[in-house]
Amino acid sequence: MTTLAPARHLPQTSAPAPQRRRTGGARRFLARLPIRLLVVAIVAIEVLPMIWMLLSSFKTQNEFVTGSVWALPSSWDFGNYIEAWVTGDFASNVRNSIIATVPALFFLLLFGVAAGFALEVMVWKGRSTILLMFVAGIMIPGQMLLVPLFITYFNLGLTQTIWPLILTYIAMGLPLTVFMMAAYFRAIPREVFEAATIDGAGMIRSFWLIGLPMISNAILTIGLVQFFSIWNDLLVALTFVTNRDLATIQVGLLNFSGEYGAMQYGPLFAAICLNVFGTLAVFLFLSKKIMAGMASGALKG
Amino acid sequence: MRDVLGDRKAIVILLAPALAFYTLIKLVPILWSLGLTFFDGNVLRGYEPVGFDNFTRLVNDAVFWEATAFTLKYALVATVLQVAAGYLLAILYVFVLRKGSALLRTVVFFPVILPTVAVGVLFKRLFGIHPTPGPVNSLIESFGGQSLDWFASGDTSFLVLILMDVWRSMGFFAVLLYAGLVDIPEEVIESARMDGAKGARLIRHIVLPLSLPVLLSAVVFAVNSTLKVFDSILAVTNGGPGTETQPLTLYMYRTVFTYNEYGYGSTLALALTIIAFAVTIVIFRSARKDVTADKAASR
Amino acid sequence: MSARIRRRRTRLVPALAGLAALSMVAVACAPAGGNAGDGGGDADGGATEFTFLTTVENPQIRDELTRLSENQCSAENEALPLVVDTIPQADVNQRVSVLASQDALPVMFVSPTSESKVGGDMYESGALLDLEETLTDLGAWEDVLPAAASTVNTIYGDMVSLPFQYNIEGFWYNKAIFAENGLEVPTTWDDFTEAAATLQEAGVQPLTASGGQGWTITRYISTYLARAHGVDALAQVSDGAASFTDPDYLVAAQELAGLGEAGYFGQGIVSRDMDTVTAEFFGGSAAMMYNGSWVLSNVYDEEDNTVGVDNIGFFPFPEVTGGAGSIDDYPANTGTVTAVSAALYNDKVGDWLACIAENYGSSLLENQGAISGFAQNTEVEGVEPLVAEITERMASAEDAVIWLEGPFGQRFGDAAGLSAGSLVDGGISPEDYMAQIQDAVEAE
């Protein structure tokens, strides 16, 4: 997550750079000051809620509800976390979320990029109609899918499995993925692909060897966006999962709401913190590997 | 060359999986649902055809018009602010912070990954008044102002919802647009710099036209997601006070799943889809002119 | 969007419609109920598993049934094993209707409240077992408390729900605050408003309620009406004999708005959630709270209740002077409907039901300290005094007062509930509020 997309490689020979270096530390610092303040302000706006969440996860119900928002918890014991782990059956929820998200994400990106390539790079009659059809999918409210899909999955005997989640996530993520991929492909000069065809490469080969690497930034970006929308989905998971053994993390969070509108805030936020900071850690770890892989790919390309 | 770019077999292989999934799991259920606009009833009671009754009812339904007005107002304000904030951030990343932007990108993206229920509770607390005033009201009081019950009126609730949505999504749009800005070829920017274009001029005349396709996609996406805003409003105001902040999606959801009126709910969904379609086409039309004009100018 | 595209689209539409029709045929041809997992039926249509669908938010029933399956009902469990599935409360309406339409209901399930009434879709579909007849046949009808049975019958028009829960509602008050301010338990509405005024003057917030949970507010209206016009006050509205906009009905909303106008509920009621309400009351910052007997679990939770068990008391909604209702009529409910599938019923299900009816009451009280609508057939030792008091009040209850939304449909529920907070804080006038809910009555 540190690097959502690689920083652009700045030309080493850029003319203004040496000049700026000569202007000296103090003036340079002052000149950058407004930017620095701006960055600090932005970071504060974004980080404070994170701190609030962490503080909340240690509070008792009373402290949370009646105490001031930024007050420190009276004690730093992990009771809420234990409660979250046990009541929420957190480990099995995490496993289900992974089982549903990873294959869905993989196929979603693969199909989406391929379709974006076919619709934007390749030339054929009717492609704008198909693209428009995909775009239309963005506009359709997801709630309308639920009842027909539930009945279908039920009749296919899939309701006690994780399949409904995977299939629905792929289909629901496609419009945005196809649409954005087409937009990113549009930004790439056509000459690149035309040159490849002169070399005699087939289009499937061009797709793997040129198309995919060219928009690896975009794939990573959309991949992240889709990952989080699938990982955080409640609507679909709620509708297609009755079996408690198949509950995802978001469904598991419901365990902390009570029948007459009550909510166990401490354990709820403990579970959210486990989820959010856990994903964050995995991404910090993964992003380094992804970056490394992409950098080497870029050099060869 | 054109033959290879138009290779039928390759097109089928690349497009078929996406098209199959999309058609079977999205389009078919949608058409199934939309077919219900001519019926009254629900899964349990069964359906009876009612012709155009649902549409006459729609036109005369004051709640529908209230929800539509709210939805459009919300989509307009939220889209403009989200995309503008995201674009400014993306420019900040690419042209000011450059390589140092990685941490900020991550931090600003962060709210996107928070579950809606957490964000909802957070904003309710931030703007709370009772039993202890939240930070916003404390701030107002410290400047000598009067604490405000933000959720007691539709207008102030609207403000809170917009702030929440912008806070939540600006990092998302920043990253989306960033990926577009990064892909602008170096040479173009460099040659413009050589020609003496700097700062705002560089952005206005070089960067903005080149990033228009991605910007356009971001606007389309923002409009469509704000037109369909649902769970964040459910978590913060539940459409209240009364139904003053009830978007079409929430009204539709209640009609279908609480009132068990599938036919009328599908009609509401159709209305929403038509609105989204109309808005998107208007955006495309107006933007396409700009793009072609600018492209012609830059060549 | 050239003409070319437009022409394409017109050709696309029939193609897609054809596809849609095809796949619907495919779905319809698939073996219905091919997966027995949900329904758990045998060859004769009877149950092979004791499947139970309950809400995520309510662990009480499933925990107690699991306990029974390991103890008193272990023989029944062996013959027909208990399998629990859960859905969120918000999903009950949708999911249970779909399951019913696919003949895939479990043996015992949470059923949508308004649809389970006589005339409702679930009831009319014939999916719900008549429990009075069944339990009578099983010789277990005596195990159901008469008051609980009458509550179910009053609300739904038939015995459609097992009384796993039975609650009465009224005001919970802070005895210490009352004593400090020299207040007695009010028995009339005038005493009640006077007590609230005294508390407000003394700097104590007299009442608390949640705009997010509209029922905590709308109960004031329905119970006031029941005190003023008798327990059939709402029935007269649904029969068309009275209207919420009649002056003698309107007064209920006016009295409630008056409490709000005087500031008795404190600020920010529209967005106040249930947790704030309970925290305020059990933290000692609000003197009274309208709530149901289920809050007993909070009373005995030392972490929640910082004012002490001995300082919490309960009094019924006060009488309206000269009114036709009696203070001994309690607003009562039996929680969410837990129905039994008529189609899956067989002798083994019957054995389970008989075992539940016999043991549930005592087991729940002993293990969870909670009260149900089943008789306590085994003496439970060491019952807390407040629990005993509430049990006694339940036993002595004469008629059940139905909640405001009870006799009407879901649209009415939203019309009444979503604006309830605004009625208290002045965002909507009592006249407009009552007109709004009367409109909802007439729309149904």
TrEMBL record, chain A:
<keyword id="KW-0472">Membrane</keyword>
<comment type="similarity">
    <text>Belongs to the binding-protein-dependent transport system permease family.</text>
</comment>
<feature type="transmembrane region" description="Helical">
    <location>
        <begin position="206"/>
        <end position="231"/>
    </location>
</feature>
<keyword id="KW-0812">Transmembrane</keyword>
<feature type="transmembrane region" description="Helical">
    <location>
        <begin position="131"/>
        <end position="156"/>
    </location>
</feature>
<dbReference type="Pfam" id="PF00528">
    <property type="entry name" value="BPD_transp_1"/>
</dbReference>
<protein>
    <submittedName>
        <fullName>Carbohydrate ABC transporter permease</fullName>
    </submittedName>
</protein>
<dbReference type="InterPro" id="IPR035906">
    <property type="entry name" value="MetI-like_sf"/>
</dbReference>
<keyword id="KW-1003">Cell membrane</keyword>
<feature type="transmembrane region" description="Helical">
    <location>
        <begin position="265"/>
        <end position="286"/>
    </location>
</feature>
<feature type="transmembrane region" description="Helical">
    <location>
        <begin position="162"/>
        <end position="185"/>
    </location>
</feature>
<dbReference type="InterPro" id="IPR000515">
    <property type="entry name" value="MetI-like"/>
</dbReference>
<feature type="region of interest" description="Disordered">
    <location>
        <begin position="1"/>
        <end position="23"/>
    </location>
</feature>
<feature type="transmembrane region" description="Helical">
    <location>
        <begin position="98"/>
        <end position="119"/>
    </location>
</feature>
<feature type="transmembrane region" description="Helical">
    <location>
        <begin position="37"/>
        <end position="55"/>
    </location>
</feature>
From TrEMBL, chain B:
<feature type="transmembrane region" description="Helical">
    <location>
        <begin position="103"/>
        <end position="123"/>
    </location>
</feature>
<feature type="transmembrane region" description="Helical">
    <location>
        <begin position="158"/>
        <end position="181"/>
    </location>
</feature>
<feature type="domain" description="ABC transmembrane type-1">
    <location>
        <begin position="68"/>
        <end position="283"/>
    </location>
</feature>
<feature type="transmembrane region" description="Helical">
    <location>
        <begin position="12"/>
        <end position="32"/>
    </location>
</feature>
<comment type="similarity">
    <text>Belongs to the binding-protein-dependent transport system permease family.</text>
</comment>
<keyword id="KW-0813">Transport</keyword>
<feature type="transmembrane region" description="Helical">
    <location>
        <begin position="74"/>
        <end position="96"/>
    </location>
</feature>
<dbReference type="InterPro" id="IPR035906">
    <property type="entry name" value="MetI-like_sf"/>
</dbReference>
<feature type="transmembrane region" description="Helical">
    <location>
        <begin position="262"/>
        <end position="284"/>
    </location>
</feature>
<feature type="transmembrane region" description="Helical">
    <location>
        <begin position="202"/>
        <end position="223"/>
    </location>
</feature>
<keyword id="KW-0472">Membrane</keyword>
<keyword id="KW-1133">Transmembrane helix</keyword>
<dbReference type="InterPro" id="IPR050809">
    <property type="entry name" value="UgpAE/MalFG_permease"/>
</dbReference>
<dbReference type="Pfam" id="PF00528">
    <property type="entry name" value="BPD_transp_1"/>
</dbReference>
<protein>
    <submittedName>
        <fullName>Sugar ABC transporter permease</fullName>
    </submittedName>
</protein>
TrEMBL record, chain C:
<keyword id="KW-0732">Signal</keyword>
<dbReference type="Pfam" id="PF01547">
    <property type="entry name" value="SBP_bac_1"/>
</dbReference>
<dbReference type="InterPro" id="IPR050490">
    <property type="entry name" value="Bact_solute-bd_prot1"/>
</dbReference>
<keyword id="KW-0813">Transport</keyword>
<comment type="similarity">
    <text>Belongs to the bacterial solute-binding protein 1 family.</text>
</comment>
<dbReference type="InterPro" id="IPR006059">
    <property type="entry name" value="SBP"/>
</dbReference>
<protein>
    <submittedName>
        <fullName>Extracellular solute-binding protein</fullName>
    </submittedName>
</protein>
<feature type="signal peptide">
    <location>
        <begin position="1"/>
        <end position="28"/>
    </location>
</feature>
